Amino acid sequence: MVRVEVHEVGRDHIDRSTVLSHIISQLRPGADLSRVVLPTFILEPRSMLERITKCVPFPCWSEAAARLTCTSYSFMAHPETLLPMSTIDDPVERFVSVVKFYLSGWHIKPPGVKKPLNPILGETFTCHWDYSDGTRGYYISEQTSHHPPKSSYFFAAPEHNIRIDGTLKPRSKFLGNSAASMMEGIATLRLMNRGQNKEKGERYILTQPNMYARGILFGKMKYELGDHSYVRCPENHLVADIEFKTKGYFSGTYNAIGGTIKNEQTGEVLYELSGLWNGEMDIKDVHTHKKDILFNATHAKHTAPIARPIEEQGERESQRLWKDTVQAILTQNHEAATDEKTKIEDRQRDEAAKRADEGIDWHPKLFRPVQGGPGGPDEGDEDLDWILNAQMCEILSAPKTCVDKANPFSDMHDPQLATKQILAIAPILQGQKESPQFQIPPHHGPQDPTAR
After folding, report:
1. Mind telling me which residue stretches traverse the membrane in this protein (predicted)?
2. What are phi and psi of 22, to 5 degrees?
3. DSSP label at 156?
4. What is the pTM of this model?
5. Minimal CA–CA distance to 366: which of 140, 169, 166?
6. What single-letter DSSP state applies at residue 153?
């Protein structure tokens, strides 16, 4: 097994003038950052799909995936905030624990100013976490669209009744001396043992702040999280409005947050939030005026995910796909890195051209379109666009494994059954290898222009 840690290659010095002259030649103020090509010496040796699992926020320079700066949430980083949530009986206290968990992941940063590799269409990454109580968390992700870029992911900790579905949909712009990454994706966290709907569980909808890179042409280079993000529980009418504050020219501080937790139905404010997202964050009860530490990120250490050995991975799994590119980056052989990266990108373009010639409609292997709308099986999840193709376990797993064909993961009360279903969809644990069992062929149908 391979523990996925952050490489230290990011600490080497980068000549910003060289990078910036390359960028400036391709950009105009207000431009979309979908076609910016950068030298490989600023690449981080890992794919964006792998990056999602642990490090946020992180700066990255855009290339074909339209990201100059990117933000994603490391929702698995601190199991001490993640795992207890479903055991709390009081709905308000439970909501506060979800907010704590949400805020605990933003402090994690990779070394240096590097960009992760842009995932190709159909690229996948899976991993798991071993927790101190003997349980595990499982992660499955796939690049479900290339233009515009969309990364879909799934996480579950069956013994703790936790499931998360999410999609990252970054939209970036060049703003003169700054660049912004507007994060339009959401994550839906479910506590499967809570809520009135035992099949879908109690839902928590999470959005993300935007990210800004300041001083990219002149002045001090600084990355900030900014604007409002929300944690919302529709079933209990609770919402946290969290402002990630950007520093003003003459006042304020970096990395500050502020916000409230309130009852949306009555408008009553219950708690106030304050502090630094990379330091101590406090929560204050507005009725008793008591202030407590919600989470202290100053010395917090995250739990690293575990990936299968590369020799067990399929050719479109992130670590195997980018193996030669990553090795060249780590040895600072930039010519070889460029060559290997170009091979993968050229293959992706050739595949898209072949599909167009043959009239084949590409679709993800592990995710399916959300079937939302009133009465739909995925009602309320429309913003995800894609969701894990759980029905696949009907044909991939042993007989009688999927007890509920409409929602195979509905029986999260049986951790062994849920785990068996998850492992039937994609290889995650050491010893599992890519095989025909996991291959879903392309199908003919109307072309989807966003999939190419």
Report:
1. none
2. -65, -40
3. E
4. 0.84
5. 140
6. E
